[in-house]
Amino acid sequence: MTLSISLIVNGEQKDIALEDPRATLLDVLRDRVGLTGTKKGCDRGQCGACTVLVDGRRINSCLALAASQDGAEVTTIEGLATGDDLHPLQAAFIEADGFQCGYCTPGQIMSALGLIREGLADNDPERIREGMSGNICRCAAYQGITEAVIKGHK
Ligand code: FES
């Protein structure tokens, strides 16, 4: 049975026919919408690489069924920059060296944006580390990531 859903992805409506009702939001974003900035790490809710905002709140898109997101507004890493102008958080990650290999970076940035919008980020590194604890960086660039969230928050 094919299910039809509509998502607003980075401000654009996407009408998607789901042949597999068990498709995750992560797979739909990458394979159907063509936005591969959102990364698949563990595919089981443990690493945060797949973090996106849904209706303004951060989620692990590998754990969300796309079918249950019908009508939702989804923001991915591709939705942050305006033309050639990076979002302040993107610029802050570069400035603070908040990455090494970069694989987790889209998820880190989307999680940081959610944290800031939830009002849970301030200049306290401990609070930021706690709020970002669902986003794993295998290169352990945590000091730069925390600095980037502080810089991007200003
Ligand atoms: Fe979703 Fe790891 S890929 S949490």
TrEMBL record:
InterPro entries in the cross-refs: 2Fe-2S-bd, 2Fe-2S-bd_dom_sf, 2Fe-2S_ferredoxin-like_sf, 2Fe-2S_ferredoxin-type, 2Fe2S_fd_BS, Aldehyde_Oxdr_Iron-Sulfur, Beta-grasp_dom_sf
Coiled-coil residue windows: none
Domain 2Fe-2S ferredoxin-type residue range list: 3-80
Keywords in alphabetical order: 2Fe-2S, Iron, Iron-sulfur, Metal-binding, Oxidoreductase
Iron found in the keyword field: yes
Single annotated GO MF: 2 iron, 2 sulfur cluster binding
Domain of life of the source: Bacteria
Protein name per UniProt: 2Fe-2S iron-sulfur cluster binding domain-containing protein
Organism: Pseudooceanicola spongiae
Biological classification of the source: Bacteria, Pseudomonadati, Pseudomonadota, Alphaproteobacteria, Rhodobacterales
